[in-house]
Design brief:
The chain has strands at 9-12, 21-25, 30-35, 47-54, 57-63, 79-84, 97-108, 119-126, 133-135. By secondary structure, the protein is mostly beta strands. It is globular.
């Protein structure tokens, strides 16, 4: 069975800024590398992993709900972001989740157009104080 994103949701611990998600992108974890080459290294550089990884960002495109109050103070509140993944295996009844603590970094209000949904984009920055986690 092919996996699609249909059925996924996104929620935040302390903000009401949610809506119908049309797209959710999970973070790109980045392990930086340290060049460990010596002067006598020939051909290719040697590399070792650095001590820390970047937790990344979760981004989402949401149908904008103009009836929901958006409080700028929510951007300063550390909160839990939970992405519930769709059930992907036939016969499985439990959704996997991806959780991360951090802060809302950006909210792009929608463009107002004829014949188009009002879409907002949101960027949530994983802060790294608690490791982001995938819970299968």
């Amino acid at each position: 069975m092919a996996d699609t994103g249909h059925g996924a949701t996104i929620a935040f611990g302390t903000t009401t800024l949610m809506g119908c998600a049309r797209q959710i992108t999970l973070p790109n974890w980045v392990q930086s590398m340290i060049d460990s080459s010596c002067l006598d290294t020939d051909t290719f550089r040697r590399k070792v992993p650095s001590d820390l990884m970047e937790g990344g960002q979760i981004t989402s495109e949401l149908v904008f709900d103009a009836t929901v109050a958006i409080d700028p103070a929510d951007f300063k509140l550390r909160q839990l972001c939970t992405v519930t993944l769709p059930i992907s295996v036939e016969g499985n009844t439990t959704n996997a989740t991806f959780t991360a603590w951090g802060y809302i970094e950006a909210l792009q209000f929608p463009a107002l157009l004829s014949d188009a949904l009002q879409m907002a984009s949101l960027t949530f920055n994983c802060d790294g104080d608690d490791d982001p986690a995938n819970h299968p």
